[in-house]
Amino acid sequence: MKIGAHVSTSGGLHTAVDRAEEIGAEAIQIFASSPRAWRFRHHSPEDIDLYQERVNKSKVSPMFIHCSYLVNIGGANDILAKSISSLKDHMNAASKIGAMGVIFHGGSHKGVGFDGVFEQAISALKSVLESSPRDVLLVIENSAGMGSHIGSSFSEIGRIVRELESPQFKVCLDTQHSFAAGYNLAEYNGLNEAMDEFQEEVGLSKLVAVHANDSKIVLGGGVDRHENIGEGHIGLLGFETIISHPAFNEVPFLLEVPGMDGNGPDKRNVDLLKKIRSKVDIRN
């Protein structure tokens, strides 16, 4: 697998590649616009050209865009409409810059239950897929199970996948979210059980990215709180277990950790995962 990271685009899209190379990231994830605002910031043709020129000189690949945190396919009326619009804007931007896909959170059903929002969620996602370029993947990320969030179980994600029946619709597995939702990825038996369930409910062919994050929260804690690699409840041995699993052999790992200095994914976290990868490769 490739070891990558979420990196900033401050100063222009092309600067993301520079930042990735500085920390040794082999793949990247970015925000194409503010993750905490509905208004989408469209990039100029000049900015896109500079980015593509920089990418062509780099080995950093693939690249994913993370959608706005405000998106909620379980939301009502105005929120749902804005969510659909945001997803469409991000899909179009991803196509323009050559990103592999757009990763998004499903949001919350606000207490009415998954069944209560299922049909509207499917309708919303179909609308996005039908009007989006065909060269970009729409990628749902599993949630940590906090409150009434959508997609904390593989069965919920699998139900969405099966209903859509779209080759464009894929899945990103977040290690911290999985752990907080009760999937014990840190231990051999727990990981095998989790990935067997993923295969049965979703299908490993749908897995296109992993958000590699340690957890500030205990197993089953149900809260989304990322920690640096080796400093949380998953731990270094847990990540050795995860990286050893064949399900992840060719899936890019993207760090979303706070960073040793609090400035986001950094070289120390990237190097830790690379060291574990090398250890696993030698053993195999």
The ordered string of helix (H) and strand (E) elements is EHEHEHEHEHEHHEEEHEH
CATH architecture: Alpha-Beta Barrel
Residues in helices, as a percent range: 40-55%
Helix/strand-derived category reads: alpha/beta
Rg, Cα atoms, Å: 18 Å
Secondary structure: number of strands: 10
| Number of separate helices | 9
What average pLDDT do the residues reach?
96
The general outline is: globular
Give the low-pLDDT segments. none
Strand order of the largest sheet: 1-2-3-4-5-6-7-10
CATH homologous superfamily descriptor: Divalent-metal-dependent TIM barrel enzymes
When the domains are counted, the total is: 1
CATH class: Alpha Beta
What does this protein look like?
- The chain is of the alpha/beta class and 284 residues long.
- The chain has a single domain, classed as Alpha-Beta Barrel (TIM Barrel).
- The protein has helices at 15-23, 45-56, 78-97, 114-130, 154-164, 175-180, 188-201, 235-244, 267-283, and strands at 3-6, 28-31, 63-66, 101-105, 137-141, 169-174, 207-212, 214-215, 226-227, 253-255.
- The mean pLDDT is 96.
Describe the protein's topology:
Blueprint: E1 3-6, H1 15-23, E2 28-31, H2 45-56, E3 63-66, H3 78-97, E4 101-105, H4 114-130, E5 137-141, H5 154-164, E6 169-174, H6 175-180, H7 188-201, E7 207-212, E8 214-215, E9 226-227, H8 235-244, E10 253-255, H9 267-283
Parallel strand pairs: 1-2, 1-10, 2-3, 3-4, 4-5, 5-6, 6-7, 7-10
Antiparallel strand pairs: 8-9
Summarize the structure in short.
The protein is an alpha/beta fold and 284 residues long. It is built from nine helices and ten strands.
